[in-house]
Amino acid sequence: MKYNTKKASLEVVFYKKLIGILIKAGHKSNAIKLLNFSLLLIAKKLKFSFSYIIWQIFNKSFTRIEVRNVAIKGKTLIVPFIANPSRRLYLVTKWLIKAITETSRKSSIINVIVEEILALILNKKSKVLEYKEKNYKAALFNKSNLHYRW
User: What is the average pLDDT across 14-24?
Assistant: First the structure.
């Protein structure tokens, strides 16, 4: 079986982005342990490899469009833009971390991460998918503002 190098590099970059966002007060080792333990629990439950799980997280929450606020003549308009690859990666990580931090459950952070990623991979009710849906709806609703992009 051939291994796609683009896929591998994307997984590594996405993994490093997640660690970078999970770091609190400069404790990188704690963020790595937290993410690895969460991925280990998911891998045991689904019987998938780490790289496949990371790829599925990115694949399920991937978007090509983003909306931005643009100020024109004293007005602020919401304008859809095509997101470049690094921005897509940022949006996926931002939505995942936002979904994890905004949870109202009183369980440990590892359980929250595991539940959110499992819901995302298994296409259940996931906050990340809700954020992706909101992004698409905002882009469709404001597609009349496309001419303000440049």
Answer: 83
Residue type, 4: N
- Structural domains of the chain, with CATH: 5-148 (1.10.455.10)
In order, the DSSP letters of 62-126 are --SEEEEEEEETTEEEEEEEEPPHHHHHHHHHHHHHHHHHT----S-HHHHHHHHHHHHHTTSS-
Other Cβ atoms less than 10 A from the Cβ of 119: the count is: 17
The amino acid at 62: F
Phi, psi of 145 (to 5 degrees): -95, 10
How many residues are present in the chain?
150
Q: What is the pLDDT of residues 78-120, one digit of tens each?
A: 889 888 888 888 899 889 988 888 877 778 888 888 999 999 9
